[in-house]
From TrEMBL:
Gene3D superfamilies, per the entry: 1.20.5.450, 1.20.80.10, Phosphatidylinositol 3-kinase Catalytic Subunit, Chain A, domain 1 (3.10.20.90), Pleckstrin-homology domain (PH domain)/Phosphotyrosine-binding domain (PTB) (2.30.29.30)
Residue ranges of domain FERM in the record: 14-304
Protein name as annotated: Merlin
PROSITE patterns: FERM_2, FERM_3
Taxon lineage: Eukaryota, Metazoa, Chordata, Craniata, Vertebrata
Species in which this protein is naturally found: Callaeas wilsoni (North Island kokako)
Membrane topology note: Peripheral membrane protein
Coiled coil: 311-464, 517-544
Gene: Nf2_1
Length: 552
């Protein structure tokens, strides 16, 4: 046998892409694999043991359908793509998440899917509940709230609220973040799995949680109702109301469900009750509804039976894991608390050390400032002492100057008094001189008048004498031998003597007047010189008084 024959023939494969809510994986599948083989491969890759909740969904001709576990993958109607894409999603939902979801991975996958359905508005949630759910989602992602680390704006890139809620309330992103953070801060100490479980416990009470809706009609002509399938039963809704069903059939009250082409029949356990029939638009939709009804009914019955050995083991492991995680969380919480206390103590010590260092630095600075102040004060004291000496010297000089100025002022006052007295005397002299000048002027005027009168009298006397001479001696020239010359001469000489005497008196008087006038002019000139000297002295005294005032 050849070596080539010994080699095992490699089976033919095809590629598939598995898309979970938060990841993607690719696998190579054998051509003969059934849907269960691929599904088990994905569950093993995820570490998932609670496989009965999940399935592989794909889209064909615009309709979402689930991969059948008992048929080959390639024998089912698949999209023409390479690799073939499947979404790994929860197909069935638990009635009570806290009791049925045992594995952390199962819980995490449900959390991610339900969160996406709420954000995509496939599940209606009130605005208040969305904020609370968002706070648990933030706790699951970021852990405990730390204001030093989670600064404003740290949720800016997280999608936490449905767009419907954001449109309904005109609040800014900062306001929404503040509301979410207020709840988030209250969840301190809650681990990630606990936060996700709290999220699911709130979500499972929402009216649209876990319900698959399909349009149906009670007759073949109109599609005017919605049929919903969930973990508790089948519900009939009006087309515009997905919250409150018009009619419900719990799994415990259903005896049989049958499917034939586009018709689906629900037979109640009570044989007297009315059988409910409805129609769907396509056979595939009817089959999908039928599959979901069978799967949910099986899980409903399974929950009410005794758990299998595998489930019991899983529950025991889950309890042990929860206990271990609880102890681990408590230990971590204690360590975290001790670490925080140690950090606070460290911060307190660092703060105290910084404070002491700051106090020491301030004390050193104060000491330096004190030394500088002491040196400065010493310099100031020396300067003050020198200034005191200088001031004392200046004071002495000022005192001397003051005494000198007082003496000068006294002298000035005395000189001023004397000068004023001299001025008064000069004024009196001037007044006297003016009076004397007036008197002398008047006397001179009288003398001039008397002189004029005397001269006029002299002229008249001479004229009269001449006239008398002419009258008495008319022939004196004609008869000179007979003239009594001696007597005429004697008489004429007598008259001439009288005239000469009078003329002499007039000359003397004129001389005296001229002399007095000259004396008066001389006195006036001396008096004017004396007045000028007095004015100069007074001006000099005034200048000295002004200078003395400036120095004072």
């Amino acid at each position: 046998m050849s070596i080539r024959g010994l080699k095992k023939k490699q089976p033919k494969t095809f590629k598939v892409r598995i898309i979970t809510v938060d990841a993607e994986m690719e696998f190579s599948c054998e051509m003969k694999w059934k849907g269960k083989d691929l599904f088990d491969l994905v569950c093993r890759a995820l570490g998932l043991r609670e496989t009965w909740f999940f399935g592989l969904q794909y889209t064909i001709k615009g309709m979402c359908t689930w991969l059948k576990m008992d048929k080959k993958v390639l024998d089912q109607e698949m999209p023409k793509e390479d690799p073939i894409s499947f979404h790994f999603l929860a197909k069935f939902y638990p009635e009570k998440v806290e009791e049925e979801l045992l594995q952390e991975i199962t819980q995490h996958l449900f959390f991610l899917q339900v969160k996406k359905q709420i954000l995509d508005e496939e599940i209606y949630c009130s605005p208040e509940a969305t904020v609370l759910l968002a706070s648990y989602a933030v706790q699951a992602k970021y852990g405990d709230y730390d204001p030093n680390f989670h600064e404003p704006g740290f949720l800016a890139h997280d999608e936490l609220l449905p767009k419907r809620v954001l449109r309904q309330y005109q609040l800014t992103a900062e306001m929404w973040e503040e509301k979410i953070t207020a709840w988030y801060a209250e969840h301190r100490g809650i681990a990630r799995d606990e936060a996700e479980m709290n999220y699911l416990k709130i979500a499972q009470d929402l009216e649209m949680y876990g319900v698959n809706y399909f349009p149906i009609a009670q007759n073949k002509n109109h599609t005017d109702l919605l049929l919903g399938v969930d973990a508790k039963g089948i519900h009939i809704y009006s087309i515009n109301n997905r919250f409150s069903p018009n009619k419900s059939f719990e799994w415990s009250s259903i005896r049989n469900i049958s499917c034939s082409e586009k018709e689906l029949t629900i037979k109640p356990l009570d044989k007297k009750a009315e059988v409910f029939k409805f129609f769907s638009s396509q056979l595939k939709v009817n089959k999908l509804i039928f599959q979901l009804c069978i799967g949910n009914h099986d899980l409903f019955m399974r929950r009410r039976r005794v758990d299998s050995i595998e489930i019991q083991q899983m529950k025991a492991q889950a309890r042990e894991e929860k206990a271990r995680k609880k102890m681990e969380n408590q230990r971590l919480a204690r360590e975290k608390q001790l670490r925080e206390e140690a950090e606070r103590a460290k911060e307190e010590l660092e703060r105290r050390l910084f404070q002491l260092e700051d106090e020491a630095r301030q004390a050193n600075e104060a000491l330096l400032r004190s030394q500088e102040a002491a040196e400065l004060l010493a310099e100031k004291a020396q300067i003050a002492e020198e200034e005191a000496k200088l001031l004392a010297q200046n004071a002495a000089e000022a005192e001397q100057e003051r005494q000198r100025l007082e003496i000068t002022a006294l002298k000035s006052k005395e000189e001023k008094r004397l000068m004023e007295q001299k001025m008064r005397e000069a004024e009196l002299i001037a007044v006297k001189l003016v009076k004397e000048s007036d008197r002398r002027a008047k006397e001179a005027e009288h003398l001039k008048q008397d002189l004029h009168e005397a001269r006029e009298a002299e002229r008249k006397a001479k004229q009269k004498l001449l006239d008398i001479t002419r009258l008495n001696y008319p022939h004196m020239a004609k008869y000179p031998q007979h003239s009594p010359s001696d007597s005429r001469d004697a008489n004429f000489d007598k008259g001439s003597t009288k005239l000469d005497l009078k003329d002499i008196d007039l000359k003397r008087l004129s001389f005296e007047i001229e002399k007095e006038r000259l004396d008066y002019l001389e006195k006036s000139r001396k008096f004017e010189d004396r007045l000028k000297e007095l004015k100069s002295e007074i001006h000099a005294l005034k200048l000295e008084e002004k200078q003395a005032g400036l120095y004072c």
